[in-house]
Design brief:
With 447 residues, the chain is α/β, with parallel strands linked by helices. It folds into 2 domains: 158 residues, UDP-n-acetylglucosamine1-carboxyvinyl-transferase, Chain, CATH 3.65.10; 218 residues, Enolpyruvate transferase domain (UDP-n-acetylglucosamine1-carboxyvinyl-transferase, Chain), CATH 3.65.10. The chain has 14 helices and 24 strands. Strands 22-23-1-24 form a 4-stranded mixed sheet, with helices on one face. Strands 2-15-17-16 form a 4-stranded mixed sheet. Strand 16 and strand 17 form a beta hairpin. The longest helix has 14 residues. The protein starts with a strand and ends in a 19-residue tail after the last strand. 53% of the residues are buried. It binds uridine-diphosphate-2(N-acetylglucosaminyl) butyric acid. Uridine-diphosphate-2(N-acetylglucosaminyl) butyric acid binds next to helix 1, helix 5, helix 6 and helix 12.
Length: 447
């Protein structure tokens, strides 16, 4: 297994491109199940979670082909993907795939809509919380599906999907997506109240509409779907929207290192809360049509944040914000309201010299001048990103172990960081790395 080694203390400068959004790519790839035929999707990020989704689709009987985006020859061009969903052989998401990637649960709605039955392994909890799927099931039941839980699997059946009014208890992101993907093929009108408003849901709605679905209200908390009898693959390739969490991570990288980065492709309209918080913290943030520039020359001010569903401050940026606040000139409070156990990174950040106290769902960070590199352990995707950010700002070497979490969600991280001046590389877990050796590290996973 690989570890990431960073020699910190260097401000990052230059342009870093944003890849396609993981959390839009996963539902969109799975949504292709709804329309038999060949689908073409562009700007697909190169991530382990995308490979897991393609393995899932392969098991279901839908092969895929990955190629470079035509007309783009830069090494960082996104990928074009062709998916053939003509035939569905198995309407199942097995445990060995779901345990690696809980978003596999998104296959439930499309498989029920296409085949009338589906068998999906229950995802169980994960490093950030219990994460039940009761709202997914409740919404699908309202559309006529019946479920039983047997041997760790949800077995679902439906004779006829019929439109319904659904009231979600909380604006769950994948829950909204699952219900939306079934409702597009239901008979009659469905209304999803208290729907999630994340930009990834808007992108999914655009993709579904390209296949002939009738949807309105995406981006608001009321989604209305007028079901159609069948969908067909879109004639035009669908480009996945830029990843706002990846973009936000690089924006924080500029601020934490006292650098100046242009995050190419970042969309200001998707990132209001992060942009505003960075400005309050003293960074100069310029939102342009083609990206966002972040520069910091002065001190970092402490800024409290509280995670909220979109358009609030995203829980997927909470760990990175905590990393940033470890370098502020005062005391910042971070409140996590979405997941019950999403502070696992705090103890690891403290190994780098951060001063953090956790009390329930609140973390208090006392900024300190100095962070010193150490070996730290990644616990989940965004926690890993926070460790990398502190590593970039710390003196000396930081080793981030369990790198596979980062490979799930950050496309070509080492390559991108190196291109803006970071000293960072991948090494085997047992490698003895000393200062000055970082450039010998690999950019990609071995083999
Ligand atoms: N919840 C329930 N019941 C449900 C569904 C959700 O109680 O049926 C609770 C969850 O336990 C959680 C809250 O509702 O406390 C919100 O969870 P949500 O369902 O919105 O999360 P998700 O759909 O499982 C997606 C992203 C996560 C991101 C969250 C919140 C994907 C594939 N995943 O998860 O992304 O943190 O929304 O924005 O879209 C990541 O990328 O690192 C990541 C974890």
């Amino acid at each position: 297994m690989d570890k990431l080694v960073i020699e910190g203390g260097r401000p990052l400068h230059g342009t870093v491109p944003v890849s396609g959004a993981k959390n839009a790519a996963l539902p969109i790839l799975i949504a292709t199940l709804l329309a038999p035929g060949e689908h073409v999707i562009d700007n697909v990020p190169e991530l382990v979670d995308v490979s897991s989704t393609l393995s899932l689709l392969g098991r279901i009987g839908c092969p895929s082909l990955v190629g470079a985006n035509p007309g783009e020859d830069g090494a960082l061009a996104g990928h074009r993907l062709r998916l053939d969903t003509q035939r569905i052989a198995f309407s199942e998401a097995p445990y060995d795939i779901v345990r690696k990637m809980r978003a596999s649960v998104l296959a439930l709605g499309p498989l029920l809509a296409r085949c009338g039955h589906a068998r999906i392994s229950l995802p169980g909890g994960c490093a950030i919380g219990v994460r039940p799927i009761d709202q997914h099931l409740k919404g699908l039941e309202a559309l006529g599906c019946r479920f039983e839980l047997v041997g760790g699997y949800v077995n679902g059946r439906v004779d006829r999907l019929v439109g319904a009014e659904i009231f979600l208890d909380m604006p769950t992101v994948t829950g909204t997506e699952n219900i939306l993907m079934a409702a597009v093929l239901a008979e009659g009108v469905s209304v999803i109240h208290n729907a999630a408003r994340e930009p990834e849901i808007v992108d999914l709605a655009h993709f579904l509409r390209g296949m002939g679905a009738r949807i309105s209200g995406e981006g608001t908390s009321t989604l209305t779907v007028d079901g159609v009898p069948a969908l067909r693959p879109s004639r035009r390739p669908h480009p996945i929207l830029p990843d706002r969490i990846e973009a936000g991570t690089y924006m924080v990288a500029a601020a934490i290192t006292g650098g100046d980065l242009f995050v190419a492709g970042a969309r200001g309209e998707d990132m209001g809360a992060v942009v505003e918080s960075l400005r309050k913290a003293g960074a100069e943030v310029t939102v342009q049509a083609d990206g966002i520039r972040v520069r910091r020359t002065g001190p970092l001010h402490p800024v409290n944040i509280e995670t909220r569903p979109h358009p609030g401050f995203p829980t997927d940026m909470q760990a990175q914000w905590m990393a940033l606040m470890t370098r502020s000139t005062g005391r910042a409070e971070i409140t996590e309201t979405i997941f019950e156990n999403r502070f696992m990174h705090a103890a690891e950040l403290m190994r780098l010299g951060a001063r953090i106290q956790i009390d329930g769902n609140k973390a208090v960070v006392e900024g300190s001048e100095r962070l010193v590199g150490a070996a730290v352990m990644a616990t989940d995707l965004r926690a890993s990103a926070s460790l990398v950010l502190c590593g970039l700002a710390a003196q000396g070497l930081t080793e981030v172990l369990r790198l596979y979490h980062l490979d799930r969600g950050y496309d070509r991280l080492v390559e991108k960081l190196r291109s803006v001046g970071a000293l960072v590389g991948r090494f085997g877990d047992n490698a003895q790395v000393r200062p000055g050796m970082i450039n010998q590290g690999r950019a990609q996973e071995a083999g």
